[in-house]
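Note to self: keep these together.
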Amino acid sequence: MKKTLKETLVIGKSTSKIISDFMKEHNLGLNDFKFEVMEEGSSGFLGLFGSKPTTIKFIYKESKAHLIKSKAKKIVKTSVKPEKKIKKKIGKKISFKKESLANSNPEDIIKITKDFAQGILAKMNITSGDVEVTQENGIYYVTVNNSKDAGFIIGKEAKMLDSLQHLLNQMVNKAEKKKIQVIIDVDGYRDRRKKALLEKVDSIAKRVKETGRSYTFEPLQASNRKVVHQRIEKDNALRTRTIGDGSRKRVVVLPVNKPTDKQSK
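Structure:
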């Protein structure tokens, strides 16, 4: 029986969740399918209005997967001719270890992390450039340099980069069978973003001390909220607190002796 290729569009909240759910539902490995991010989602204004879901196209052999009831909002399936629909611009195939790596040393984890990172980018038809993996204090840092698709890998507000990082963490943790933290960066983007955020925090801290009025940041991701908290903790004249829920969480900076009040910028 001739194996045909299937094309499936999956719509969901985030890139990493869509891919991981798809792989679990269809019992697929990374080499069993290809995918392309058709549209990157956004949370919209205050996470309430104008939000857009993420849309990903998967291409896989019908004999390798069968569609089970999906948790995504919407799925559209159509048959596709391989010679017309599959792009030839794809990176080299990566051979992934399937055996347990529970007793692997840092060198082994560096190798599989690099293989996974290159494999994910290749599946997205992305020019990966130079991929390097280093380890420091138990944290594995993936650095992508000189990629022609750096802007796409990062995405709007680094959402694509964060999604890829989340997916990479899931894959490495599953292979290693223990908690491993992996951080991925492209052309030093995260360092530049952190530096810019710290400069803003210092400016806000100065203003709060001069005026005595609190300041409320725009909604920030957990990692950025942590940066703000840690920076302000070093100033004995100021303190922080968090307001809001979920993606709408904000950090408030206020004088240490000032009671809770209406925050203003």
